[in-house]
Design brief:
This protein is of the alpha/beta class and 219 residues long. It has a single domain, classed as TIM Barrel (Alpha-Beta Barrel). It starts with a helix and ends with a helix.
């Protein structure tokens, strides 16, 4: 599935990143992601650090099919090989992954390439490496990445102003602090626990989408 630049920008609004550690007994990642998509998530990334390659690929294949039904972009975290094997919509990589590797050449011109950045220099490098969007964080303190320090509002604004591609904020974002990003220039938010740890992921997603729309509308 090919997504236009405008579709990619609008899909940043509420970017869900999976984390199976929050699954409750009887739940599967696919079931919860279906609830999340029904709740209005606009983008989905599979990020499962504790799965072996075979199990990861199986989950990714199932989630790709699910996202296609909702016409929501689906990317694989880190593994370019798995993203290509299952023909995912794209891949999301970190700064270390673009050192000495031309990820854009590996995945071709039509796949979505997301790259993480925490500084203006990294954001510019990501854009030059062919990124379609940048994940910037951590915007707040986060339990997902213990070593991540949070950015100031000024740093976030500077990063957004330094590139022409969409920027999604990530790190510690939830319903109580999301609107603090109003005016930063981000095109949306990426969330993990605010969705996957919620007692009702579908309702949590719908609430976060409403808040993200409001945040983006405020510039």
């Amino acid at each position: 599935m090919k997504f236009t630049n405008d579709e990619i920008r609008s899909s940043m609004l509420l970017y869900a990143v999976t984390d199976r550690m929050w699954l409750k007994p009887g739940q599967t990642l696919v079931n919860v992601c279906q609830e999340v998509l029904e709740g209005g998530a606009t983008f989905l990334q599979i990020r499962e650090k504790d799965l072996d390659a075979s199990a990861f690929e199986q989950e990714a294949q199932a989630l790709k099919a699910l996202c296609a039904r909702y016409r929501v972009p689906f990317v694989v975290n880190d593994s370019v090989e798995i993203a290509l094997d299952i023909d995912a919509d794209g891949v999301h990589v970190g700064q270390s992954d673009i050192q000495g590797r031309d990820i854009r050449a590996m995945i071709g011109p039509d796949k979505i390439l997301g790259i993480s950045a925490g500084t203006v220099q990294e954001a510019v490098a990501a854009q030059q490496a062919g990124a379609d969007y940048i994940g910037v964080g951590a915007v707040f303190n986060t339990s997902t990445k213990q070593d991540a320090t949070s950015l100031s509002m000024e740093q976030l604004k500077d990063i957004c102003a330094s590139v022409s591609i969409p920027v999604v904020g990530i790190g510690g974002i939830n319903a109580s602090n999301l609107l603090e990003l109003s005016g930063s220039g981000v095109d949306g938010v990426a969330v993990v626990s605010a969705i996957f740890a919620a007692s009702n992921p579908k309702a949590a997603t719908a609430r976060l989408l409403e808040l993200s729309r409001k945040m983006v509308a405020h510039g």
